[in-house]
Amino acid sequence: MVDQDLSLFHDSAPLFSVTEFGAPMPDADRLWHAKTASEWTSIFEQVHEFSGGFSSVGSGARPLSLRDLFRHFLDDEIIAQGIELTPLHLRLLLHPLQSLVCQYCQLLSCFSDTGASRQRTRAVTAASTRVRLEEVQSLLQRWYDLADRYSKSNPMCAMMQANLVMFHLISLNAITNFPEIEKLARREGFDGTYQQLVWTHRRCISDVEEAIFHCGQVLRLIRSMQRGVRPPWWAAAVYRVSLILWTDSLTHNDSVSPPSGLFPVPGPSFAVDALPTDHPLIVRYLTKREGVPMLTKRDGSQMPIDHAYGVLSHCIDVINEGVSNRFSDGIRGKLEKLARS
User: Fold this and answer.
1) 303: helix, coil or strand?
2) For the chain, how big is the Rg over CA atoms in Å?
3) What letter would DSSP give residue 274?
4) Burial state string for 234-254 with b = 16 or more CB within 10 A and e = fewer than 16
5) Average pLDDT for the chain
6) 61, 173, 199, 271: which sits with the fewest CB atoms below 10 Å from its CB?
């Protein structure tokens, strides 16, 4: 889990491979909550049920390893085989998925955008890499379906909230180039022209609607967490969301965009950081690309996401809502500096 955290927030490949995780994972949560030996025995036989009425107690039955669990996940056998997942299992399954996203995104970033490089062999390689990345995104959706299935039958806990945030952050990595976004924030190689801004925006965010959706869900989940039990990286998650929304808002700035109405706003407005993923307005926005996403202020009012300073100020307010420490103070300072620039 630490390897995953460091990899995600440092935009680097994880150090461990899923093939190395051959040891059994912790067993079902119900076993840890058993109060007596007889209750534990009964639950163990339910979790590790043998056919033919044979008892699994003393049989040497062990939980799956992450490598075996991921194999069942790839084969879409989790539900069919009745494998009982825990929040820890779901969190660990995100590690190999993140590795795949990182691998293909790094490969895609190596291709040149110039016309001189658009030879047949290179184009096919780039296209095939994008297809593989889309396959990983399908696996991420499968993971979310499993997490949603678990959440509907179990009370929401802090770990599941953190798992869902990690899912949305990994999904963001599949459609954004965060190192390039940070370069834009530092004004590295940027001359300020609208043409270059459009090109940089396209390079930084490949799917705007998906990115805004995931950003909104990260903010929704973090604000729903209890202040005292948030994961240590929660401020870094807000930082990534704020820079992605800030990058998109730059193309809506009247001072740089042409006044020809290139950004239509069909459909009703909705709070992208307050509605659940299955809300009709969210579904409509993702499937039909209709609607105007908004952010929710502390007083419940909504604000647009097309103004760079307003987006950064809102994300600073979100950080201020959490428990202050040196890390979150540093994140807030970086956002305040960007807002003043």
Assistant:
1) strand
2) 22
3) T
4) bbbbbbbbbbbbbbbbbbbee
5) 86
6) 199
Asked if residues 292 and 267 have their Cβ atoms less than 8 Å apart, the reply is yes
pLDDT single digits (tens) 236-254: 999 999 999 999 999 876 4
φ, ψ (nearest 5 deg) of residue 52: 85, 5
Question: 105 with 11: CB under 8 angstroms?
Answer: no
Q: What is the pTM of this model?
A: 0.86
Could you tell me the pLDDT band of residue 257, with boundaries at 50, 70 and 90? very low
Most confident of 63-72, 74-83, 103-112, 311-320: 311-320
The whole-number average pLDDT for the span 294-315 is 93
Dist CA 108 CA 110 (whole Å):
5
185, 258, 307, 308 from 255: Cα distances, Å? 17, 8, 11, 12
Calculate helix-pair angle for 158-175, 120-153, nearest 10 degrees: 160
Q: Which residues contact 280 (CB under 8 A, 6 or more apart)?
A: none
Query: Would you give the DSSP letter of residue 302?
Result: E
The pair of structure tokens assigned to 146 is: 């499993």
